[in-house]
Amino acid sequence: MDGFSDLSMFALVARHRNLAAAARDLGVTPPSISKRLAQLEKRLGVRLVNRTTRRVSLTPEGELYLTDGSRLLDELAELEQLVTRSSAEPTGLLRVNASFGFGRAHVAPAISRFIERFPSMKIQLHLTDRPVSLQEEGFDLGIRFGDVPEARINARLLLRNRRLVCASPGYVQRCGGPSVPHDLAQHACLVLRENESAYGTWHFSRGKKSETVKVEGPLSSNDGSAVLHWALEGRGIAVRSEWEIAGHLERGELVPLLDDWALPNADIHAIYLERHRLSAKLKTFMEFLGDDLREGSETRSARAT
Length: 305
Fold this sequence. Notes:
alpha/beta, Arc Repressor Mutant, subunit A, 3-stranded antiparallel sheet, 10 helices, 14 strands
């Protein structure tokens, strides 16, 4: 193996701190990764990692090799990008992270259409129930909702998106609907437990006025699909993203409530860690995904009118 190939392999092992995970990414067996790592250490004449049954940790020499080696890999990637910038078709691998619900409904279908147009690309889509660190988990791109939390993270807006209060027509007929946010305290609310947000606390604003309501009800879940299912069954009032319930609103299966009040921003962003130029493959994918999501949103809006 050449030096850059070994360096790329070592960087992957260091990022995962796990030989099996690195092997899975490379499409090889863990023993083959262990053998290559041993050969690299023999060639360099130093131990780069300390191995346990589950994880590996870097030695001081390994930390130095990773730090300077990562810089060399970045410079090589920039050089290749400069040389191939005129190429019309992006190539290479992208690792993408998204949430289960949005990932299944929108990102996975968009990736299928992307690969059909750009067959030289490879995409690994990893769905999780909560946002993960791109750097620690080795992702090139993450799909996130709302405000981007970290200033050092680069972000590109893919689609405007609102959070809406909604319920089934049956629930509204049976229990009435809230006139102001604090009326929600008297209703059965379907509470989503996710991330580190305050459990059962809904924040509203209208102009310069804001209200915070502590809601509760007999049903709660850490899964948005379960909450939506209960809302459709008439079990209570929910807060869901516009992308998820647009079709149900259009068909009259859900009705919006408190229309004149706004909930916190739920815009959809692509976030990435590259500090300098965007690689051609990442730039092309983000542009394609944004166009695909906006086209789908416009189609739903046209059907609604």
